[in-house]
Task: structure prediction
Amino acid sequence: MSHGRKAGFETRAIHAGQEPEPVTGAVVPPIFQTSTYAQAEVARPRRGGPSRNGSARGYEYSRTGNPTRDALQDCLAELEGGAAALAFASGMAAEDALLRTICGPGDHVVIPDDAYGGTYRLFARVLRRWGLAFDTAPVADPDAVAAAMTPATTAIWVETPTNPLLGVADLARLADLAHQRGAKLVVDNTFATPYLQQPLALGADVVVHSTTKYLGGHSDVVGGALVVADPDLGQELAFHQNATGAVAAPFDAWLTLRGVKTLGVRMDRHCDNAERVVEFLCQHPAVADVLYPGLPSHPGHKVAAGQMRRFGGMVSFRLAGGAPAAVDACNRARLFLLAESLGGVESLIEHPARMTHASVAGSPLAVPDDLVRLSVGIETVEDLLADLDQALEGL
Ligand SMILES: Cc1ncc(COP(=O)(O)O)c(C=O)c1O
Result:
């Protein structure tokens, strides 16, 4: 793939880490469904394929390394412009491994005041017991993030756009802020994906993914990933990944990699459809407010336009009729399936206050109960609009 000019995103998504298999020439990386590998001699693994840094690597045991997982990791590192990537059993497993690598008891992290509920729960109910302190801040406001930092802050944790309120954080500014104070900037890039936004190029230190979402793209596999700019941090994370063990299974890595190949074309269609849905919702009398960073009226629109290629497939809106109307709209939708998760080819609808974000009810991160979140899929857009029309009728 190296002919001087850097290959385009879609080309890299299809080929990076995915050289034809050396024995048979199979064009798709095989599912290496093996737990262990026969060694050439005592403590001398056979030579595996070349790794991202060019050194030959051998395989000993599949928690430590697996060629199918490596293919996914190499592809993700390439797409995010990182030095290394690690694939995990879920997004939460990736987050846990990252935090227990870059933080220790006594440290402090600033997280978004509308963080994904599972991320908040990890901090509030798991890592707090381990001695990791945190505070929340509106990540759209860098001054508020700076004010929330303490001398013990080791990381600023950011989602952009946020889940489910679609707030936008200025990544270059937050990277500067973090680095001035000796902290790392961690960006959960699940909503945007590397096709729409490249946090490492804007100064972030670590990108987090729930690959369950757009990267996998077909709602058929749960997974997570970390991508880092610094190869030494990559080594440290690989040590923790092996030591704690929440690795992506070979079949899961294979499914995720198959999804990644079409990420660019899917994201463009997600964005096309989301834009039409936003247009429809903005003129609907039952809708009080539409949250989408692509709207010029969105407070983060300018920042989003500067750091994103397009604005993504996630759309949230508030109902003039309050919580009962929001719940009714969710229950009435047919083509939009009522389900948690997001980022698959099929459209989903949900009520965050009672579903994905139920774990933050009563906390500072509680979301408005008149809010509906859509994951706009890649179906025929007229069918999506017709479904929303019937779901909102008379509300
Ligand atoms: C933004 C975001 N980050 C992380 C996660 C956690 O990922 P997983 O469900 O794969 O563990 C999710 C899951 O919904 C998410 O939406």
Observations:
- The first helix runs from residue 9 to 15.
